[in-house]
């Protein structure tokens, strides 16, 4: 069997609900452990060991929640959009479930990014809120998430809800590059990127490492919630299928 | 891919490409309105409509901050390393306000060409470092991150 065939086989197995359900159950405990460890390292490193900033003093430490949340708000949306495209083209039910289970998590991360940003903005900038391109596009992202959740729950038929939601998710995906480049394309109050300049990040290494720990911990946290959510969504959606019956009778 | 899947793939691609192009054109058309502030050069060049409230953003010029006695009023200049505008503000400045720091002020130009601000916001940069590092950088006289003063 060639490598290509193996990869295809893996995709097909992942798309099988019974297989995914089982695999997700096995992976979940490890993900929870890894999340907890990394988040502890990141928090202690960021709040205790990282030095205070030359301008913002200890106030800058909110970065360890704000920046990972903001990254996640965009990352989760991209996961949603990609899965929506897969669902629209190949009609893979699991993709729809992943997209649906991601929406609430993504909305929470967006909300967290906006709130922590606001709390950070008041002492540093002197205002809770300003209608600059970065803040406005991030607020739009929150509305996109809420709209997606609302649209899906307004339609009773699962297939129709999936299609309508997927189209909305794809349309909204255009906002993601706008959020990312807003600080480059227009002048804003929000500062430009510090970390994504990989050749020369504008943040000291001992401040950067806890931040990266937190970023990975947030990603793993998302994975935990995604696995839990999609497992229960799968059970509900597949409640009439043979493998769920077997699962229920065997336990 | 089956022909049906191929067709849906093309449809989805067209949706994304078409919308991106559309939104891109709208954003280009609205470019001026999306910018949060005008630069001192734009203000000096008279690009700002007269008698209108607007925001100005730039660096506080070194040695330009002047506090009026017994009042909260502060006078200072903003520059974008090309042009300079005189500002006047009565109120409490944000903690990060200092000379050489980027700020954004909202207000109006008066007859003498002085910008009377009623709100001053500090725009902090994207550099994060401990104070010792900053001190060392200052002593060595080098600009570690070699930032330009403004865009």
What does this structure look like?
The complex is a heterodimer of chains A (251) and B (151). Chain A has 251 residues and is mostly helical. Chain A has 9 helices and no strands. Chain A has helices at residues 3-14, 17-49, 63-90, 93-124, 133-154, 158-172, 175-185, 205-237, 242-250. Chain A starts with a helix and ends with a helix. The mean pLDDT of chain A is 91. Chain B is of the alpha+beta class and 151 residues long. Chain B has 4 helices and 6 strands. The radius of gyration of chain B is 22 Å and the shape is elongated. In chain B, a hairpin with a 5-residue loop joins strand 2 (66-67) and strand 3 (73-79). Chain B starts with a helix and ends in an 11-residue tail after the last helix. In chain B, strands 1-3-4-6-5 form a 5-stranded mixed barrel.
Summarize the structure.
Chain A is built from 9 helices and no strands.
List its traits.
heterodimer, A: 251 residues, mainly alpha, 9 helices, globular, B: 151 residues, alpha+beta, five-stranded mixed barrel, 4 helices, 6 strands, 26% strand, elongated, disordered C terminus
**Tell me, what's the shape of chain A?**
globular
Distance between the termini of chain B: 48 Å
Low-confidence stretches of chain A: none
Strand line-up across the major sheet of chain B: 1-3-4-6-5
Mean pLDDT of chain A: 91
Name the pair of protein chains with the most residues at their interface, and give those residue counts: A-B, 42 and 40 residues
Approximate strand percentage of chain A: under 5%
Estimate the mean pLDDT confidence of chain B: 84
The description of the largest β-sheet of chain B is: 5 strands, mixed, barrel
Structural class of chain B: alpha+beta
What gyration radius of chain B follows from the Cα positions, in whole Å? 22 Å
What does the secondary structure layout of this molecule look like, with pairings?
The complex is a heterodimer of chains A (251) and B (151).
Chain A: H1 3-14, H2 17-49, H3 63-90, H4 93-124, H5 133-154, H6 158-172, H7 175-185, H8 205-237, H9 242-250
Helix pairs in contact in A: 2-8, 3-4, 3-6, 3-8, 4-5, 4-8, 5-6, 5-7
Chain B: H1 3-29, H2 31-34, H3 40-44, E1 54-60, E2 66-67, E3 73-79, E4 84-90, E5 102-109, E6 115-123, H4 131-140
Parallel strand pairs in B: 4-6
Antiparallel strand pairs in B: 1-3, 1-5, 2-3, 3-4, 5-6
């Amino acid at each position: 069997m060639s490598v290509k065939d193996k990869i295809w086989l893996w995709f097909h197995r992942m798309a099988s609900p019974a297989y995914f359900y089982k695999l997700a159950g096995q992976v979940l405990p490890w993900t929870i452990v890894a999340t907890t460890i990394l988040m502890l390292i990141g928090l202690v490193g960021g709040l205790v060991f990282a030095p205070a900033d030359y301008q913002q003093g200890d106030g800058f430490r909110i970065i360890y929640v704000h920046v990972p949340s903001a990254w996640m708000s965009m990352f989760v949306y991209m996961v949603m959009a990609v899965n929506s495209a897969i669902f629209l083209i190949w009609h893979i039910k699991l993709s729809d479930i992943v997209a649906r289970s991601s929406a609430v998590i993504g909305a929470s991360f967006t909300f967290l990014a906006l709130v922590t940003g606001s709390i950070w903005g008041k002492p540093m900038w002197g205002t809770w809120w300003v209608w600059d391109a970065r803040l406005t596009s991030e607020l739009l992202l929150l509305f996109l998430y809420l709209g997606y959740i609302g649209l899906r729950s307004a339609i009773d038929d699962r297939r129709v809800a999936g299609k309508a939601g997927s189209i909305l998710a794809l349309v909204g995906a255009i906002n993601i590059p706008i959020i990312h480049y807003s600080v480059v394309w227009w002048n804003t109050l929000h500062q430009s990127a510090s970390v994504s300049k990989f050749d020369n990040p504008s943040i000291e290494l001992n401040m950067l490492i806890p931040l990266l720990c937190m970023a990975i911990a947030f990603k793993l946290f998302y994975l935990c919630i995604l696995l839990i959510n999609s497992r229960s969504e799968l059970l509900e959606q597949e409640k009439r299928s043979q493998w769920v019956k077997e699962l229920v009778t065997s336990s | 891919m089956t022909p049906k899947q191929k067709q849906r793939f093309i449809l989805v691609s067209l949706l994304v490409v078409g919308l991106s192009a559309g939104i891109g054109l709208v954003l280009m058309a609205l470019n001026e309105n999306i910018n949060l502030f005008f630069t001192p050069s734009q203000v000096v060049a008279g690009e700002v409509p007269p008698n209108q409230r607007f925001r100005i953003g730039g660096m506080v010029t070194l040695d330009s901050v002047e506090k009026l006695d017994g009042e909260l009023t502060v006078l200072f200049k903003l520059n974008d390393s090309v042009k300079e505008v005189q500002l006047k503000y009565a109120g409490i400045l944000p903690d990060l306000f200092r000379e050489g720091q980027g700020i954004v002020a909202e207000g109006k130009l008066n007859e003498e060409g002085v910008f009377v601000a009623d709100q001053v916001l500090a725009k902090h940069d994207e550099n994060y470092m401990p104070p010792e590092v900053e001190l060392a950088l200052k002593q060595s006289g080098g600009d570690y991150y070699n930032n330009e003063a403004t865009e």
